[in-house]
Amino acid sequence: MAIKFSRLKLFRTQEGYTQEEVAEKLGVTRQSVAKWERGEAQPDIESCVALANLYGTTVDALIREMGQEKSLEEGRHIFGVVRMNDKGQITLPAACRKLFRLESGDAILVLGDEAKAGIALVNLKDFETGEERSE
């Protein structure tokens, strides 16, 4: 099984780093970072750990193809990783917004489950009408 690092650029841009800045922090060349992001080369394990630390994630999250897991039940999705800004705001991935028909100005109900450490979002326009969405 080949390991893919297809989301390295996503993590880097979410953190606001340039390839040069990442390269400097890891002690590698900018060309190495560019090759990792294009899939032309793979970082060594020490660089993987350093990247995960730099991006505030895990090595596992760096290498997994999010949304491609086969073990999910039908109707359940993984859209990827988002970061909350200092105002407590997140940007939902475009695929999530499209699938759940979320539009600017929609009222979103936020639910939480402390026992499962989970948060759920419900679009109130679907909730209030009681209609089931068809895909």
Kindly describe this structure.
The structure is a single chain. Strand 1 and strand 2 form a beta hairpin. This protein starts with 7 loop residues before the first helix and ends in a 6-residue tail after the last helix. The protein is elongated, with a radius of gyration of 18 Å. The chain is mostly helical. The relative contact order is 0.10. The protein is built from seven helices and two strands. The longest helix is centred in the middle third of the chain and has 11 residues, at 45-55.
Quick take:
By secondary structure, this protein is mainly alpha-helical. The chain folds into two domains: 8-63, 434 Repressor (Amino-terminal Domain) (Orthogonal Bundle); 82-135, Pemi-like Protein 1, Chain: D, CATH 2.10.260.10.
What are its keywords?
single chain, 135 residues, mainly alpha, 434 Repressor (Amino-terminal Domain), Pemi-like Protein 1, Chain: D, 2 domains, two-stranded antiparallel sheet, 7 helices, 2 strands, 39% helix, 9% strand, elongated
Fold topology:
Layout: H1 8-15, H2 19-26, H3 30-38, H4 45-55, H5 59-63, H6 94-99, E1 108-113, E2 118-123, H7 124-129
Antiparallel strand pairs: 1-2
Helix pairs in contact: 2-3
Order of helices and strands: HHHHHHEEH
Which CATH class of the largest domain applies here? Mainly Alpha
Q: The CATH topology of the largest domain, please?
A: 434 Repressor (Amino-terminal Domain)
| Count of helix runs | 7
Strand order in the sheet with the most strands: 1-2
> What ranges have pLDDT less than 50 throughout 5 or more consecutive residues?
66-71
- Calculate the mean pLDDT score and round it: 82
From the N-terminal CA to the C-terminal CA, the straight-line distance is 33 Å
Q: What is the total number of structural domains?
A: 2
Please tell me how large the radius of gyration is.
Answer: 18 Å
Shape: elongated
CATH superfamily of the largest domain: lambda repressor-like DNA-binding domains
Write down how many β-strands occur, each being a DSSP E stretch of 2 or more residues.
2
Largest sheet: 2 strands, antiparallel
Name of the CATH architecture of the largest domain: Orthogonal Bundle
Which strand-content bin applies to the residues? 5-15%
